[in-house]
Design brief:
With about 120 residues, the chain is mostly beta strands. A hairpin with a 3-residue loop joins strand 4 and strand 5.
């Protein structure tokens, strides 16, 4: 969850004493974001503990965090800086890269050096 101008927050799905579902605050980032988009979560083939939360932020650009909090914090993963991005978008993924839009340009972040093969 990310409210405009606040930290990105993670909430854990738990149950109360009667077994009813309940959300409990788990962690947040240690800095604020523009938060004009939807966080996206990816995993490494569903491997526990290998999730990444991605956010296309209007002020910080593309940001990424480990999905499993450490000490109440979502730990940032360094990614290539894109600069602020357009509001209300999310990154898309393919060819071992994350793609985001900045104005009229599409920016590819990450992956391995070399040509991109489209099929």
């Amino acid at each position: 969850m990310c409210t405009t101008g606040q930290a990105l927050q993670a909430w854990a799905l738990t149950t109360d004493s009667l077994g009813r579902p309940n959300f409990k605050f788990a962690a947040e980032t240690n800095f604020t974001l523009g938060c004009h988009g939807t966080p996206t979560v990816t995993t490494l083939d569903g491997t526990p503990g290998k999730g990444v939360v991605w956010m296309s932020d209007s002020s910080k650009g593309l940001v990424a965090f480990h999905a499993v909090p450490v000490g109440g914090l979502l730990v940032e993963i360094p990614v290539t800086r894109t600069g602020g991005l357009m509001k209300y978008q999310r990154p898309v993924f393919g060819n071992n890269r994350a793609y985001v839009q900045s104005g009229a340009n599409v920016i590819a972040v990450g992956g391995t050096p070399g040509p991109v093969t489209y099929s």
